[in-house]
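Supplementary Methods S3. Complex input for the pyridoxal-5'-phosphate-bound model.
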Amino acid sequence: MSDRVFNFSAGPSVMPESVLKKAGSEILNYGGSGMSVMEMSHRSAAFTDIFNNVKATFKSLMNVPDSHEVLFLQGGATAQFASIPMNLMKSGSADYAVTGHFSKKAAVEAEKYGSVHIACDTSAENHSVIPAQSALSLTDISDYFYYCANNTIYGTQWQYVPSSAAPLVCDMSSEILSKPVDVEKYGLIYAGVQKNMAPAGLTVVIIDKSLAGHEMPITPEIFSYKEMISKDSMLNTPPCWCIYMLGLTCDWVREMGGLSAMEELSIERSRLIYDVLDESRFYTAHAQADSRSRMNVTFRTPSDALDAEFVKGAAALGLVNLKGHKKTGGLRASLYNAMPIEGAVKLSEYMKKFEVEHV
Ligand SMILES: *Cc1c(COP(=O)(O)O)cnc(C)c1O
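Predicted complex, serialized as structure tokens:
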């Protein structure tokens, strides 16, 4: 395994090595069944067992109360941009915080289904900042307040849970399982799994059951939370392999000490990189200090040419996928749960060395 790299990709992204090994060891014959999980009927006893265990482990890690249901859906986080308004906009309006690319896309999609009120829009700051609660403009007719907890592309993260009279709806795709969450405060939480949990193809939704059942008549059955709750996510064939992989990741998180342990590690990892940025006159951080993400660190060198050289030099050392998103340019280091501390140490050392050699 010494030929593995440190993969700083924003998504799909690094998985824990022990999870990949476990999946590898079971790939031909899962639990004496004589077949791979990939080959199993989703109605089989073996898969039903996997499904129930994954759901139970995820619920216990996230401390999901009985008022909420956990759903395993498809269509990525992007399908939720449509599902959320179709199911939750029962009186026809919602407040959206636009703090980056994905919340903007969610707001634009929701406009197809009702009236969207923009509670804040940080595009003038190139999404380098998360607004304070006092800067949010919330209406009193809104069916829900929507925000994206961690802005994967811009590298900003909400440092507080916003409060709103309407139910909170949150895209946690790029921070879920990185810290404890008070699920009770939320009407709906969702996350595409390919950032911090499992291979792409599965979206986890945690929904307050009392919010389901008010969907618009046009809502496709497959997008109906009520239908999915009543069928325990098995309205059609679920992404069995992704669910199994999510289970392995949840077991790993639990063995590592749960979400508080994940939070400590994410503080340590991100601090290693932010310390270099703070001490440097060479690198510029994109996010404002009070809005920094622990998951995606965005920064740049003094020029595009040096950014490119940085990426190339890093790759030669086995530090890969550090190029920033095309929307921001520059550099981005994604530091998800599965990134070993050693990867962040190696990156911070490389950053310091690169600076000395290029100032
Ligand atoms: C990646 C990402 C998305 C889009 O996810 P898809 O699964 O590709 O639809 C949405 N929101 C956030 C915060 C993301 O990081």
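The chain has a mean pLDDT of 97. Residues 9 and 321 are 5 Å apart (CA to CA).
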